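Design job #97: recover the sequence.
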């Protein structure tokens, strides 16, 4: 029995699992959302939430006029091993989640992967709603496209009766307008 043994093994040794979670954490911090298996997303979520809380608490202490909390940065760097990710975490993400009491990430299930049938999910930071911004922009674009009139597509002939009638009228007008010009040039 596995009493009081939390966490998933993910089919890896301890060092490999630690490296995997570190890489997933760095990717999430840099890109604000990642697509991975559900098991990895749930494990990475626990790790990232702790890192964000540590960064948030360090930034809150710094705002009181004290010096930078170098110890917190070093502890986060010891796990992430990426200087840019640590900088982004402390400068950008921690400032944005300062008022949030927790729950900085969400896991959205996407279904099964075609190759091996693994359950795939998206892990994203809640305060960076990148997916929702794109979804909100699409209805506006559709509304704008519906408001304007579309002309005939290139490469396909027009087949409606009205267009044939207007086309014959236009050619008749051009022919009648060009005949007087020709007669005037002959008379001169």
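Job complete. Output follows.
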């Amino acid at each position: 029995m596995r009493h009081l043994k939390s966490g998933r093994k993910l089919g890896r040794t301890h060092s490999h699992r630690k490296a995997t979670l570190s890489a997933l954490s760095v990717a999430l911090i840099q890109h604000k959302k990642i697509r991975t298996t559900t098991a990895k997303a749930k494990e990475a979520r626990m790790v990232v939430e702790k890192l964000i809380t540590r960064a948030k608490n360090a930034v809150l202490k710094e705002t009181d006029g004290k010096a930078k909390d170098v110890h917190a940065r070093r502890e986060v760097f010891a796990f992430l091993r990426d200087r840019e990710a640590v900088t982004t975490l402390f400068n950008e993400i921690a400032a944005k989640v300062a008022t949030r009491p927790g729950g900085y990430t969400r896991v959205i299930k996407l279904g099964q992967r075609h190759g091996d049938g693994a359950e795939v999910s998206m892990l994203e930071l809640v305060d960076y709603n990148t997916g929702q911004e794109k979804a909100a922009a699409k209805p506006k674009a559709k509304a704008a496209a519906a408001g304007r009139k579309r002309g005939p597509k290139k490469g396909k002939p027009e087949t409606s009766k009205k267009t044939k009638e207007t086309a014959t009228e236009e050619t008749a007008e051009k022919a009648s307008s060009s005949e007087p010009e020709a007669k005037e040039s002959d008379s001169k």
